[in-house]
Amino acid sequence: MLTSVKGSWCLILGVSSGMGRATALAMAREGAHVFGVHFSTAVQQEEADALEAELRATGVQVHFHNANAASRKTRAALIPLLAEAVGPDGVRVVLHSLAFGSLLPYIPRSDAEDVISQRQMDMTVDVMGHSLVYWVQDLHAAGLLRRGAKVLALTSRGDSRVMPNYGAVSAAKSALAAHVRQLAVELAPAGIGVNALRAGLTLTPALIRIPGSDELARRASEANPHGRITVPEDVAEAVLMLSAGDSSWITGNVIDVDGGEGLV
After folding, report:
1. CATH number for 185
2. Which tens digit of pLDDT belongs to each residue from 129-176?
3. CA-based angle 14:22:102, to the nearest 5?
4. So what's the pLDDT on residue 56?
5. Which has the closest alpha carbon to 187: 211, 151, 158?
6. DSSP string covering 104-166, please?
7. Computed over its alpha carbons, how large is the radius of gyration of the chain?
8. 193-199, strands of its sheet edge to edge
9. Is residue 217 in some structural domain?
10. What is the rounded CA–CA span in Å between residue 169 and residue 184?
């Protein structure tokens, strides 16, 4: 049965930019309250403050926290605050939109002598992959994931393709897909859906850090049947569609949100 997200709460990890930002705006415009976590510098904090004000202007409740969402201490500090904010109904939507990792090759090259270290590899996979599991574990233990809740993680075509310096991120995205499958099965009895959204190539701040991103965007735009690349609002619309229902029958999937980019 289709319902509405109006009056519900969404938790967005990585709320201040890219797809997290677009989803927060889309949710707020539909009347959903937003609890957002972002990890921002002083300059980026100004952008986060502006987003928070824009969300509040829609009339919804908004709680933003500048903290490392991949940290156990952050979860321990914020989950009680989240529980206080959302009340007995819990969280309707959890969006895992964390994009922070090392972009270094595995093997030295003539143009890049530095290679990824074990610490950098572990950090990348932990932030962009394993942290999904830890948040879901803690939210479930706190009773904040009720029947009908949706857990959504963001991945990319890089989960199965080789791109320059993208190896650690690709490994993280592959781990993320495995975690989505496992969580989907374990949470099915509770009526909670878990999926990953695989966006087409999108010019987010994370993508721009990848060497050659402009050329990647040009090729994707030319190849996409729609004649353009994916934008964060495309992903936000998909989050809304998947969230506007109580069914958990769509679960355990990696769903392409790419305008057919992966077909050609």
Report:
1. 3.40.50.720
2. 999 999 999 999 999 999 999 999 999 887 888 888 889 999 999 999
3. 35
4. 98
5. 151
6. --SS-BTTB-----HHHHHHHHIIIIIHHHHHHHHHHHTT-EEEEEEEEEEEEGGGSS--TT-
7. 18
8. 62-66, 33-38, 9-13, 91-96, 145-156, 193-199, 254-257
9. no
10. 22
Rounded Cα distance between 194 and 152, Å, is 6
List Cα–Cα distances, 191 to 32, 81, 143, 210, 237, in angstroms.
Answer: 21, 24, 13, 38, 22
Query: Is residue 259 assigned to a domain?
Result: no
**Structure tokens of 138?**
């803690």
Cα(201)–Cα(261) distance, integer angstroms: 8
**Domains contained in the chain, number:** 1
Chain centre to alpha carbon of residue 245: 20
How much is the mean pLDDT over the chain? 93
Residue 170, domain extent = 9-200+233-253
Closest alpha carbon to 63 in 90, 83, 45, 36: 36
Looking at 14-28, 126-140, 191-205, which range is the least confident one? 191-205
Q: What is the pTM of this model?
A: 0.94
Half-sphere exposure of 228 (CA within 13 A, CB side): 5
With respect to residue 264, please indicate whether it lies within any of the assigned structural domains: no
Alpha carbon distance 152, 243 (integer Å): 9
Nearest 5°: the CA angle 194, 196, 197 is 135
In a domain, 218, yes or no: no
Provide the token pair at 132: 């999904």
pLDDT at site 1: 55
Residues 6+ apart with CB under 8 A from 49: none
Give residue-wise pLDDT tens across range 218-232.
887 888 999 998 999
